[in-house]
Amino acid sequence: MSRILIIEDEESIADLEKDYLELSGFQVEIEGEGPTGLARALEEDFQLVILDLMLPGVDGFEICRRLREAKNTPIIMVSAKKDDIDKIRGLGLGADDYMTKPFSPSELVARVKAHLTRYERLVSSNVSANQVIEIRGIKIDKTARRVWVNGEEKNFTSREFDLLTFLAENPNHVFTKEELFRKIWDMDSVGDIATVTVHIKKIREKIEFNSTKPQYIETIWGVGYRFKV
Ligand code: CA
């Protein structure tokens, strides 16, 4: 369940917002003062903050700026004055949305839902983007454990996949066969470093255009291998 923090000093407004958001299934907390609101927004895990502009202690401008420096939590700023909203926009403090009081609670709920959906999509796309490695025609999806070479999917055994991914994640770094064996195979697994040579050969057959003249995994004679970028 998404947790929302309302930083608002007018109790009746805060309570109204809270009621509507709770009816929509959100968990809602209220802080009536700037300093405590800022502290909680920074320290606790909220998925969205509804931030009033005029607050005792620290105002909404400052809270927005400080919170944005530390986190990407969506912020909806509210103010009684249209002029203030224009000013906030102009300052580029990083708020995600602005509403002028009085607004209808259902309008607030609709905007909260829209921002949460957008934010969750953004977060999940970042996560999946981090799991894909792309180097000169080779695409490795670490999450799905799939590999494409120039758009064509190739099948790899589990060790081959781990070895290729490890080398691709550390481009231009030369690893000895011993290092690769220790890294990819369990310490107590039966085998020797010749296993590494065999696996490199199999990987090359799948990713290289000409495996006798490798463009990706280079042999550094007397040392080991590296993934060339
Ligand atoms: Ca206020």
Core attributes:
single chain, 229 residues, alpha/beta, five-stranded parallel sheet, four-stranded antiparallel sheet, 12 strands, 21% strand, elongated, binds calcium ion
Overview of this structure, please?
- This protein is an alpha/beta fold and 229 residues long.
- Helices cover 45% and strands 21% of the residues.
- It has helices spanning 11-23, 34-43, 60-70, 82-91, 105-130, 158-169, 177-184, 194-207, and strands at residues 3-7, 27-31, 48-52, 75-79, 97-100, 132-135, 138-141, 146-149, 152-154, 175-176, 217-220, 224-227.
- The protein has a five-stranded parallel beta sheet, sandwiched between helices. A four-stranded antiparallel beta sheet has the order 6-7-8-9. A three-stranded antiparallel beta sheet has the order 10-12-11.
- Strand 8 (146-149) and strand 9 (152-154) form a beta hairpin.
- The two termini are 44 Å apart.
- The mean pLDDT is 89.
- It binds calcium ion.
- The site of calcium ion has 5 residues, from loops.
- Calcium ion binds at residues 9-10, 52, 54-55.
Helix-strand blueprint:
Layout: E1 3-7, H1 11-23, E2 27-31, H2 34-43, E3 48-52, H3 60-70, E4 75-79, H4 82-91, E5 97-100, H5 105-130, E6 132-135, E7 138-141, E8 146-149, E9 152-154, H6 158-169, E10 175-176, H7 177-184, H8 194-207, E11 217-220, E12 224-227
Parallel strand pairs: 1-2, 1-3, 3-4, 4-5
Antiparallel strand pairs: 6-7, 7-8, 8-9, 10-12, 11-12
Helix pairs in contact: 1-5, 2-3, 6-8, 7-8
The chain binds calcium ion.
Calcium ion binds next to loops.
